[in-house]
Predict the structure.
Amino acid sequence: MTEVDLAVGLLDHQLVDCNGRRCGNVDDLELSLAGEPRVEAILVGPPVWRGRGRLGRLFASLSRTPTVRVPWPEVEKIDAAVHLRKAAPEYGLGRGDDRLRPWIERIPGS
Amino acid sequence: MKKLLQIALGILAAIGGFVDIGDLVFNVEAGATFGYQLLWVVVVGVVGIIVYSEMCGRVAAASKRPVFDAVRERMGFGVGAGVLIASQFVNLMTLAAEIGGAALLLELLAGLSYRGLIVVAVIGLGVAIWVLPFDWIERVFGYMGLCLLVFVVGAIKLQPDWGAVGHGFVPHADTGNFLLYAYFAVGLLGAAMTPYEVYFYSSGAVEEGWTPKDLGLNRANSMIGYALGGVLSFALMITAGALYLPKSIEPQFIGTVALAADVPLGTIGLILALVGMLFAVGGAAIDTCLSGAYNVSQFFGWEWGKHRRAAAAPRFTLSWIVLLVLAFGVVMTGIDPILLTEYSVIFSVVALPLTYLPILLVANDKAYMGRYTNGRLANVFGLIYLAIIMVISLTAIPLMILTNGGTG
């Protein structure tokens, strides 16, 4: 078993899906403190930025994207990034890129 | 053999890509005002950019992380967001200054109206970013930037007083106007260590998939490439010092810079100088524009990269387009590009510690770097430069106000 420092080794790290696509950061963690403390889920999205300083609140207020909750067992491995078992859309991650894609695809050579 | 060629080509691109509008303006103004006296400051600046680009190239190769991943992971969301806003503001100003400079140079080459040429420059840059793959951007603009070597020939042909040039490399402050001297020193350091250079360098290393095997390439690019690139800065300052100081000319216009090659070398020299400056400034504009997109995408965890199709990284693509359009708006207001350059360099100095501190922290972290953490030499230099950067970031704006933006 490897030790991970949650604050430095996990929080704010890059999420990558099973296709190698970057699909958000670990914006917050859901912990269970009943009994043995453990990480229940990774939380991603603007609403959880509210708990992360004044600029976090400002950025959160500019976006309507909901929070995505990725249950901890979905994490396959942690190296430079946090790798997830499935593709981003299955978790609801990377929606901003998916919504914008049709517009970018209209430009020739995209 | 192939590896050697790759390293040599990388070094050439690094030399040609070293100079940007900030270097052009500050080196020439410093040379025209103080002769060769500030050459030693350029050495300090060049060593600084070598130390930190080597470090973040190594971080990228060993930990697979570009600068803004490190910023957010080590400084958290709140502070990281502040760094993001500051760096994007500086990137926007720098990009606007580079575009304005490119338009001025096109004006000298083609003789159309300045505003019309801003449009041409922006469209040209947008198409280049859209069409060219990452390594081509680096090479095309880097190699064409090598035309700037004409200033080295020019500096030698002008037969400067080499004793005085040599004295300029010795740190000293022998002047009646110390504040102005200090202002130019800060500007030269800021121009040599512009933050977008490390953002672009590290994201580029991740784009090209560097691994610890590429650490030799990293060292060659940063140490040899930037050191030789610094020679171009020396040449600009020596040329300006030999040509303008005796005649008390104040080069307030970018054309004066190119004339420095015309006097000793004639029309061919002038054209090479203008083409070299155009590609140096254009390449810097592209680096700055992409840096802005890298930073915001990395901070928010979006997909990013020029090695992907534009449609595979939509928000990254939109980010650089938006930045280019905003910069276009800034230049079109008619603000003087030279003034804009000075402001962008001085403000970038203020933001520098926020960029360099997280790199230094991550480069010392075994969990990220494994056995490639900073050695003693990198740490000694890293700390010295962090201290220098702190000092200049605190003094930059007061000096700009006290010297009335370098006009005395």
